[in-house]
Fold this sequence. Notes:
19 helices, alpha+beta
Amino acid sequence: MRGATQTKWLVAATAIALAATACSTSSKSTDKAASGGGTIAVQLGEPQHGLIPQNTAESEGAEVLNALFAGLVEYDNKTNEPKLRVAESIESPDSKLWTIKLKDGYTFHNGEKVTAQSFVDAWNWGANQDNAAEGLPFFAKIEGSEELSPGKDKKPTTDKLKGLTVVDDKTFTVALSAPFSQFKTMLGYNAFYPLPKAFFQDKKTFEEAPIGNGPFQMDGKWEHNQQIKVKRYDNFPAADGKAKLQGVTFKIYDKLETAYNDLRADNIQATDKLPISAMGTVKGEFGDRYIYKPESGVGYIGFPIATNPATYGKPEIRKAISMAIDREAITKTIFSGTRVPADDFVNPLIPGYRKGAMGDAAKYDPTKAKALWDTAGGVPNNTIELGYNADGGHKEWIEAVANQLKKNLGVEVTTKPFEKFGKILDALGAKQYSGGFRMAWSMDYPSIENYERPIFSKVAIENGSNYGGYVNEQFESLLDQADQAKSPEEGLKLYQQADDVLIQDLPYIPVYTYMSSAAYSKKIKNFDTDAQGRMNLDEVELAG
Length: 544
């Protein structure tokens, strides 16, 4: 689930994230440890819930898991192409039957060896609907997934995916129900991380102190709304690059302004989320230590189509709202140029993005918007509400959108702040909130498909991030055809046709795409963020 909005998707999610809960640190957060490397503190938002890779689809939890785990593949920071990490090889003759071989040397932080069984057990748990894992949709392509996830009011008939077979300690095979050329690309997402035996013995303890296989290990338990501490795992394979730092403290904030002031005072050494109030001055203050580059996120206004069809059920109403939003004004005035107006459901970093794909729907035209609104009959009581998470710096732009809609459509608009991002996600997931809502998505893996199925497919309604309850059978059919395309080029065209259906229906309104806005202190070097907005903490060093 990142960058500057907390999402459930990054997802999960994931999703894109800006959340947190609070406290300032002391000015002694960088220390030279006796064993070398030093320690630092960085900004984090409070994760939504327990830290299980298969059940984490928002950016704050994913940030921590990225330090604690190593996946089968990782993504090149320049090209976003998948590169082998824990996997020695990932091969398939037909994009349907895949053989995965593991490298030697990886162990969990409790000393247990990472084996093929570690991955198979983790995926079986994530695919079982009884566990209600948010990563469940990512296993839907594996043969036997319908038996583990038969749907609402039905029970799984097995606890294992029949498409997974352990060949030996270092090898397992994955049989998909149909060819899927993007499968290797998916495998860097945290839902595909391995799990140790200790997880299955005591899940509650694991949620508070995960045992991973990555460059850092937990240093104590998650101190909710305060901090999460990790330390270097010295048995991490040297070939993968041991962490340079001895330890990192993720300080949890509920206000970005507080975190930014702590960064300026060197009470923390890095943040990958900056408050809107800093955008006009951060470059002048931090110089080369201010990072500004494209990121994979897309920010939306979403609609609870299934929960509140009387208000949001007509595509014409949703299109009128989209045309009444002045994206240029919001990105330039509110965000000081740190966002870019969106013109597609797909982020520009991703192959398959088409400049201007949304056409008139993304063009600010108050006159046409009002005419379309009136022709469609407006909304009941001439009133709509926009919800947002108050812990993520969204108040200003949501209120700007509300004012634009009032002025351009003549509709009454109220705004509803939710204390934390997790709160609005919970309300939407339980179908307890019927207003429009601020949402954002950052890639789980670099594929156009990842901007479609996890957010807008039927399978993602109960087990995913389709908070609007959108269903379109043409969209579903095009996704299936694209998955099974004989070539990447053919598949890309079909995914773009699915994108065209979203543009026609506008279940969400893309408002802006993200630029990574991060900053770090003089006390560290080699700091960077990836396209998912995650910090490269294993490469960071003290500067002097």
